[in-house]
Amino acid sequence: MLHSRRPPLTLLTLAIIAACTSGGAATAADQPAVEEVIIDIGGNEPVGAGSEIVIEGPSQPSGSASGELIIEESGPAAAPTDETRIAGSSGSTGDTSDFEIRIDDVRAEYGRFTRSRAEADSTLYGKVSGFANWQPAPQWEFQVAARVDGYSQDQRNAFTDITADYGDSFVRYRGDNFRLTAGTQTVVWGRLDEIPLSDRVSTADLTRFVLDNLEDRRRSNPMLRAETFLGSGKLDLVWLFDFRAAELPDQDSVWYPINRESGRILGIDPAIIPPAAVRNATIIEDEPSGDGGFGARYTRTHSFADIGVTIARTRQSTPYFRSAGVGRFQAEYPRSWAYGADAAIDAGGATWRVELVYSSDNPVTRTDLSYTTTPGIAWGGGVEFHPGDGDTRVNLQLVGMNLIDTPAIIDRDEIYSINGEIEAPFDRARWRARLDFYAGIGDKDIYLNPEVAFLGWEPHELYLALHYFAGDADTLGGFHEDHSSINLGWRASF
Q: Is the omega angle on the peptide bond into residue 196 within 30 degrees of 0, that is, cis?
């Protein structure tokens, strides 16, 4: 099957042009991105990572130095991830017009499930993305981007799906000490690595669940964005003028949050909602029309720490499936106020990060299967360091979620976990060994992702990875316990 995502407004024509000229999704970051998504069907939208991550188009196209003021935040805590880019029209040099068009990301992967109870034996995935970027003058920038993804799954729930989607396609104006961008963009706010709790304006990509890094688990969404300096910090304002829900996998995919073959719903104990009520259910994915809300984030670097404050009133992009009658499940995308604060501090040869977010309306289901929302708090802290000041990097984090004043519900009202990453290059950095992990506290919930990659064939990368899941029935690892896999792949960024 071939599907396409309709770009908003006049960007449809631009995206088609980009696709026909090898255009695709660009992924430049105002700050480097690191992330793992944890999906809770209880409505606490999985979030992803980094000190503060901004993914928005190609990383400095050929003419981007003209009229763009790049300010490196010099505080000690800024070292791992923080970079702020604010456009300025003064002092520009170089060419008055620059144009770039290229394919920037290609990927192919084969996955083999290791357990006989899996609904499929294997999967295939492929991706091609690219962009066209034009800067006719230092103050102006135009970009169109597109991507094509291919998915295939065999055996009982076999399907093949090819999708076309827009990437970061926008018009940008750079003024004196400010930047205004209109179009489709990818912006992820947050402090914690892999799980940024302040991530309130991005659109999640759930087509491959947690198999990919953060930048591959976010899609462009329509927004108007203004960035400027305020005092000695940066103010980032975003309006999601057209809501875009999360990109979901095919309903036959093993990664879909409702498994009709096993009769299970992600995050819900099957003893509460019997499998028979799920197997033949009708699933309604319809997303609401209208805008997705707005958000503001202020970041500042002090001599002792980097700090951030976030206020947002947005819809969560990840659907919460509520019971809508016998044999029917309806996707909900509730609006919620979010108030967050975060900080990063460099001390003792390590970077320490903390983040706290209050959200007003988290979707839950009462024990009588009626739908409601309740407030909640998400919090987390972590440390990142290089043992012996070597090349090995270790990141460890503790994260919790607590719902407040909940009625009797079937969802989990508190979740605690540790997660992290250990990465070690070897053989003159021609190889890389990495382990991503997530483990529940109090409940058995395990995800392990060891990977070995060959990096000596730049810009190509060959990798072999294991994705292992295990856990209690109402956890992420328990829901996907039959979907552990070994994956062999190739990726390249040009």
A: no
